[in-house]
């Protein structure tokens, strides 16, 4: 399965997603590793098997084995962290923010790729998962590392489109069941 196959599966009412999926997978600001790492991490976070398979097939061709693994790791670790930190923030009880998380997060310190790329992918996943604390933290790291606002926006646009495509395909599948 390819991105072209994925586009063909989208219904006509999702024409904007068809156009956007091609557009977001190119960037004048981000490099290929940043684009495809964000796409793979976002596809995984969006949890739709069809989207995951299509993006995975192309990401394997575009990413080194280390970057491929790190993008998957960004999705995995943010799947945990986004829930924990969203709770700590949204509970309204600041005591939770003062407590140590006591969750292993070694991959963040040693992701196996440029830390800036891993932070960018973590930001994209955090946008999908809706964790304000994580979005703020990763955005600051990425901006401090030199990625422009346009580059940050490109990563979040990738996340938004992956999520939109996944939600559309999930909705269509539910209608046919």
UniProtKB/TrEMBL annotation:
Enzyme Commission number(s) of this protein: 1.11.1.28
Broad enzyme group: oxidoreductase
Disulfide bonds: 131-134
Residue ranges of every copy of the Carboxymuconolactone decarboxylase-like domain listed in the record: 95-176
Keyword field: Antioxidant, Disulfide bond, Oxidoreductase, Peroxidase, Redox-active center
Pfam families referenced in this protein's UniProt entry, alphabetically: CMD
InterPro entries the UniProt entry points to: AhpD, AhpD-like, AhpD_core, CMD-like
Signal sequence interval, chain numbering: none
Catalytic activity: N(6)-[(R)-dihydrolipoyl]-L-lysyl-[lipoyl-carrier protein] + a hydroperoxide = N(6)-[(R)-lipoyl]-L-lysyl-[lipoyl-carrier protein] + an alcohol + H2O
Active site: 131, 134
Similarity section: Belongs to the AhpD family.
Alphabetical list of HAMAP family matching this protein: AhpD
Role this protein plays: Antioxidant protein with alkyl hydroperoxidase activity. Required for the reduction of the AhpC active site cysteine residues and for the regeneration of the AhpC enzyme activity.
Record's protein name: Alkyl hydroperoxide reductase AhpD
Species assigned in the record: Kiloniella laminariae
Gene behind this protein: ahpD
């Amino acid at each position: 399965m390819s991105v072209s196959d994925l586009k063909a599966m989208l219904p006509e009412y999702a024409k904007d997603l068809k156009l956007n999926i091609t557009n977001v997978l190119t960037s004048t600001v981000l490099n290929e590793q940043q684009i495809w790492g964000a796409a793979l991490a976002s596809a995984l976070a969006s949890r739709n098997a069809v989207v995951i398979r299509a993006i995975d097939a192309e990401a394997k061709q575009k990413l080194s084995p280390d970057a491929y693994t790190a993008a998957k790791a960004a999705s995995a670790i943010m799947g945990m962290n986004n829930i924990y930190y969203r709770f700590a923030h949204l509970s309204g009880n600041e005591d939770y923010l003062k407590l140590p998380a006591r969750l292993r997060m070694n991959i963040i310190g040693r992701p196996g790729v440029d830390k800036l790329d891993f932070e960018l992918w973590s930001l994209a996943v955090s946008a999908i998962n809706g964790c304000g604390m994580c979005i703020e933290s990763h955005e600051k790291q990425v901006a401090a590392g030199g990625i422009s606002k346009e580059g940050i926006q490109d990563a979040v646009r990738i996340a938004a489109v992956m999520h939109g495509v996944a939600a559309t395909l999930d909705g269509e599948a539910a209608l046919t069941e």
